[in-house]
Amino acid sequence: MPAIVSDTTPLNYLVLIDAVDLLPRLYQRVLIPPAVRDELTRPKTPETVRLWMIQPPSWLEVVTRGIRFMSQPMLTVQVRALRDAYRSFQSNGDIVQLLEAAIEMEIRFGTQTPDPVPVMNNGAPNLKREYLNLICFDFISG
Predict the structure, then answer these.
(1) Which 3-state string (H, E, C) describes 35-85?
(2) Percent of residues, the chain, with pLDDT higher than 90
(3) Mean pLDDT score across all residues of the chain
(4) Rounded distance, CA 86 to CA 83, Å?
(5) Per residue in 58-67, pLDDT tens?
(6) Does 77 share its domain with 127?
(7) Which of 17, 47, 54, 106: CA 20 to 30 A from 91?
(8) Does one domain contain both 58 and 80?
(9) Domain ends where: 11, 39, 63?
(10) Order of strands across the sheet with 3-5?
(11) How many other C-beta atoms can be found within 10 angstroms of the C-beta atom of residue 47?
């Protein structure tokens, strides 16, 4: 069974309708970034959801390292390595492998200052695709 990365809304509503136990039947692990954990424990979040998140089930895992690394500005070489890891993810669909690749990159590269963005004569930045720090995960289920 695969792992998935979840956002706040699905977890919130599955807890509210008492159907969150469907997730471990479908997925071995459900991964969430710290921001999702924080949203699920905010004072304005329904009490049922907050209490569930305070004592999460064993199949729910807050992942920080790989996600944190992918959220920082990157050197061009890091963007290329991450692109290779993402292509692998597109072919095998293993999100855990993608996160592990990001963690390996963090160990290999550490936190570094990104390459300076060249500026054109008119003062506007001369941006390349490599300067964009954007990863899109496309899950298509049929």
Answers:
(1) HHHHHHCCCCCCHHHHHHHHCCCCCEEECCHHHHHHCCCCCHHHHHHHHHH
(2) 30
(3) 76
(4) 5
(5) 999 888 776 6
(6) yes
(7) 106
(8) no
(9) 63
(10) 3-5, 29-32, 60-62
(11) 8
80-106 residue pLDDT tens: 888 888 888 788 877 777 778 877 887
Is residue 58 domain-shared with residue 10, that is, in the same domain? Answer: yes
Q: Please report, to the nearest 10 degrees, the dihedral formed by the alpha carbons of residues 36, 72, 138, 53 taken in order.
A: -10
- Specify whether 36 is located in the same domain as 78: no
The position carrying tokens 């390459």 is 115
CB-CB neighbours of 128 under 10 Å: 12
Indicate the DSSP class of residue 28.
S
Q: What's the CA gap between 96 and 46, in Å, rounded?
A: 30
* Owning domain of residue 92: 72-131
- Domains in the chain, number: 2
